[in-house]
Amino acid sequence: xxxxxxxxxxxxxxxxxxxxxxxxxxxxxxxxxxxxxxxxxxxxxxxxxxxxxxxxxxxxxxxxxxxxxxxxxxxxxxxxxxxxxxxxxxxxxxxxxxxxxxxxxxxxxxxxxxxxxxxxxxxxxxxxxxxxxxxxxxxxxxxxxxxxxxxxxxxxxxxxxxxxxxxxxxxxxxxxxxxxxxxxxxxxxxxxxxxxxxxxxxxxxxxxxxxxxxxxxxxxxxxxxxxxxxxxxxxxxxxxxxxxxxxxxxxxxxxxxxxxxxxxxxxxxxxx
Length: 272
Fold this sequence. Notes:
By secondary structure, the chain is of the alpha/beta class. The protein folds into 2 domains: 28-127 and 233-269, Periplasmic binding protein-like II (D-Maltodextrin-Binding Protein, domain 2, 3-Layer(aba) Sandwich); 129-223, D-Maltodextrin-Binding Protein, domain 2 (3-Layer(aba) Sandwich). It is 40% helix and 22% strand. The chain contains 10 helices and 13 strands. Strands 1, 4, 5, 6, 7 and 13 form a 6-stranded mixed β-sheet that branches. Strands 11-8-12 form a 3-stranded antiparallel β-sheet.
């Protein structure tokens, strides 16, 4: 019964995040252009998009929390800026919003890849993470249990729409010499996909390891042992038309990542 309630909780979170994003986007129908730091300072507001989940950004009663939320607030405070945060589950829509000027910054763990570097500017690394396969624990001789990356041939993996993990899966498909199918899910985030795997709605999902570990106690039937990528750097992203914003963020991160405040925030969300 408790597990079922947790499943409903994570599905509801996805629905709430979609409603919030739809409501907030209604006030941004006019397309603008990517802003740089001077324009942001002039308005006094930094527009940020992130994924709504228990690691990045979430609301619990009257309290707003999240690893990336706390970091953004620390940055904004240091620069005397206000923050306007929009939750968006689809990474593809996050990227679209960045290119149109709807958002100034994508503040969630973005894996640093050469493909993404062609599209956006990435800040200096904030954390280390990797992509993992999420599946259910099965009996030893089960024909759906993935024991190694070679077993991924002809399997369908579910990911958040536009996720950087898609590029890695395509490369992995080439490496094993067989097709690995990808289904992109637009209305749900990583946490909701994990809940769907746990309850048998889908067999496989791919997400970052930290998100998977955050939910493993809620869904002990999940297995996250199979890595999809190597451990790599994760950063924030800004438009290629915002080089001064990038420089400002990097200057702040260089100092802040060495501070006791950062250590406190990191320990709060990454206990292990």
